Amino acid sequence: MAPAPCKVRHARREDVSTILQLIRELADYEHELDAVEATEDTLLSTIAFAPDNVESTTIAPNTEPTSPSRPARCLILFNEQGKPAGMALYFYNYSTWRAKAGIYLEDLFVRETERKKGYGKKLLVELAKEVIATNGGRLEWSVLKWNEPSIKFYESIGAKAMDEWVGMRVDRENLTKLASLLD
After folding, report:
1. Chain centroid to CA 152: how far?
2. How far is CA 46 from CA 42, 69, 72, 76, 173, in A?
3. How far apart are the first and last CA of the chain?
4. Which residues does 123 contact at the CB level (< 8 Å), separation at least 6?
5. What per-residue confidence (pLDDT) applies to 91?
6. Residue 76: in which H helix or E strand, if any?
7. Whether the Cβ atoms of residue 111 and residue 64 lie closer than 8 Å to each other
8. Tens digits of per-residue pLDDT, 129-142?
9. What is the pTM of this model?
């Protein structure tokens, strides 16, 4: 299915309130709205934005440089009426076995009223184009186990569940403890 008419571009600084709203809508969908700590200021300081009035595509990203303190980029999808309908917030990762860069999709979100129009697929296609354009090795992401509609959608486009892997995380006070473990 071809997506409904839409436009995808890299986020600009002027889009920060939209990005925060989409993050909050995603968190609400995942029953974690109270966990959102992001603010417009923290997003402005951690996302590599495209300059105003400059087209930035996934094949030729024209954004601020990414760095350890500004690691992320964000694609925003606008519907036929020019309204924000979804986003893909991502950063670059690396495969040691393939010795290639890739993209880790941190969040993919399409507003509930805009679903079933091919917009999620359009955002994933754009990210896949960027991976290929940079001679990257893979595009990967995580999905909540209870999110069956998304899992089925991802499998329908060729994604494979990585059942043999377990995600691990250290954050908050445990991150501080780990950092001083050998002091």
Report:
1. 19
2. 6, 6, 6, 16, 22
3. 57
4. 8, 75, 77, 86, 87, 88, 108, 110
5. 97
6. strand 72-78
7. no
8. 999 999 999 999 99
9. 0.94
